[in-house]
Amino acid sequence: MFHHVKELEFNARVSAPDPRFASLLLEQFGGANGELKAAMQYFLQAFAARKPFPDKYDLLMDIATEELSHLEIVGATITMLLDGVNGELKNAAENSMLFNLLSGTQQKEQMIHEAMTNPQFLGLSGGTPTLTNSQGVPWTAAYVNANGDLTVDLRSDLASESRAKIVYEYVMQFTDDPYVKETLGFLMTREIAHYKMFAAALETIEPNFPPGVLQGDPRYTHLYMNMSNGSSVRGPWNEGQGPWEAGEQWEYIHNPYQQVVDTHGLVDQPVKGTQRTPEEAKQLEKKLSIKRSQEIEAVTKSGSTQWSTYPQTNVVSPSQMKDQQL
């Protein structure tokens, strides 16, 4: 159940109209990394988590709902940046606000150019936000990632928050309005907070790597292929233990072509860098498959069912369950 509160989460303000920046800000309204995309992504991901992982469902729905409030903040800011434009578009007098704002041939030509780039904005919308990006490309559900596995979805969410944060960081450089900067700074900061929330949630899933259930073939998981000529760069991504567990390390292949030839297309590649065998990987897959299936089957009933209970009961997170067991 959704309930709209008319007060904004953050008191969005602008110093003066700025139609050009309003057009740019559409990127965070109907763009690929904008607030609507985030809200819909987390909202959709929540459905698969509702029964087996109610704590993650609560997290995803809370953040999805906050993203809708951020969409309202962005829309309100765009509207204020276009303050008076809707009425002035209907005012043909030369002393109108829009005429003064775009006085001079160069300013008018620039606005015409931008209107041609995004014809729906101003030209067709009459000064209201449109569900497009800054170039007029309509919002699409193709922006949304929801794969039905939390170890995958939460990583997608980390990437989404990262991209949204950097877009705010970029667009803030195109306005000198201190009020607008303040609003965008708040929205950018909430992306950081959401990133931490998703990262913390991912850590409560054990194991959470690799994403999904199937394990990688240990003959290939630790190989780093030197696929470029010239000087080779080494780092924790291709030498030493890197992100692997104790006792495991990267296997650096200096000459991938020769390695492929010597191992008959890597078919005869031996296990290196880890003590895990292909057989052990298969056994772990079976155990994890059973665990993940049981998590879902334990809360899936045959016959009639219902989504909610009334009143709703409190949800206990995995970390709280561990504390109660100790």
TrEMBL record:
Signal peptide: none annotated. Residues 298-326 are annotated as: Disordered. Its EC number is 1.11.1.6. Binds 1 Ca(2+) ion per subunit. Ca(2+) binds at D58, D62, N226, S228, G230. Mn(2+) binds at E35, E67, H70, E161, H194. Keywords: Calcium, Manganese, Metal-binding, Oxidoreductase, Peroxidase. The keyword Protein transport does not apply. Its cofactor is Ca(2+); Mn(2+). Residues 301-326 have a biased composition (Polar residues). Pfam families: Mn_catalase (PF05067). It comes from the Bacteria. One of its GO terms (molecular function) is catalase activity. Belongs to the manganese catalase family. This is Catalase. It comes from Gloeothece verrucosa (strain PCC 7822).
